[in-house]
């Protein structure tokens, strides 16, 4: 059974007409959108959305220029509540346009894979409280200096060496399963020679010792 709020779940409540609100005045803008009318029709959910007015190509282009994602330097896109696959795809399209962003917050968005995204100028990325399970699922961030991935589900340190040739100085992996791996800190620092701080703790002398890679073999002689 439908809830009374179902008729409002795709309404664009953030579309403010005839208002002088600039993008730089929004601290954490909602960028999610509902499915198109065609998609709702195939889902048999066209009743969920009132008839939208037709948007011309000119209006679409004006909206694109107004958003101006390409020139964003600092952006907070946290807490988007991306409950629909359409919204996730639209969110990724916006991320692909962030070619000049330097500081980006993506906290608590239930993200699982951004490997197709490239953020060429990003120096600081906060992706806490998402659903990443591997470093391979992170976006391409060649200029990253500060990376926070607390409260994800990263189980191993496999793939962390991809950041070896980046200027990464600070990394936070608190409350990830990989934090409980044996010789965790030594493994991270040996993989990332430029790293200065891990989980808020500066690099210590004991962190500089290489991980134990010695193997012991036992020979059994049968007479």
UniProtKB/TrEMBL annotation:
Matching InterPro entries: LRR_dom_sf (IPR032675)
Residues of the signal peptide: none
Keyword ATP-binding in annotation: no
Key words of the record: Leucine-rich repeat, Repeat
The name this protein goes by in its record: TILB protein
Organism: Brachypodius melanocephalos (black-headed bulbul)
Gene that encodes the chain: Lrcc6
């Amino acid at each position: 059974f439908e809830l009374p709020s179902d008729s409002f779940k795709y309404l664009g409540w953030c579309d403010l007409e005839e208002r002088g609100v600039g993008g730089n005045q929004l601290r954490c803008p909602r960028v999610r959108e509902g499915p198109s009318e065609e998609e709702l029709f195939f889902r048999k959910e066209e009743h969920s959305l009132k008839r939208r007015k037709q948007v011309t190509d000119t209006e679409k282009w004006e909206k694109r220029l107004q958003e101006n994602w390409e020139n964003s330097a600092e952006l907070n896109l946290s807490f988007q509540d991306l409950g629909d696959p359409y919204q996730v795809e639209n969110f990724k399209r916006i991320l692909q346009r962030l070619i000049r962003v330097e500081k980006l917050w993506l906290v608590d968005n239930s993200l699982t894979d951004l490997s197709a995204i490239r953020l060429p100028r990003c120096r600081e990325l906060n992706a806490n409280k998402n659903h990443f399970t591997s470093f391979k699922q992170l976006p391409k961030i060649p200029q990253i200096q500060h990376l926070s991935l607390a409260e994800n589900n990263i189980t191993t340190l496999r793939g962390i060496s991809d950041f070896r040739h980046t200027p990464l100085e600070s990394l936070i992996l608190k409350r990830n399963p990989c934090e409980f791996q044996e010789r965790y800190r030594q493994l991270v620092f040996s993989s990332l020679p430029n790293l200065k701080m891990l989980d808020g703790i500066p690099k210590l002398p004991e962190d500089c010792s290489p991980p134990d890679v010695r193997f012991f073999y036992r020979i059994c002689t049968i007479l």
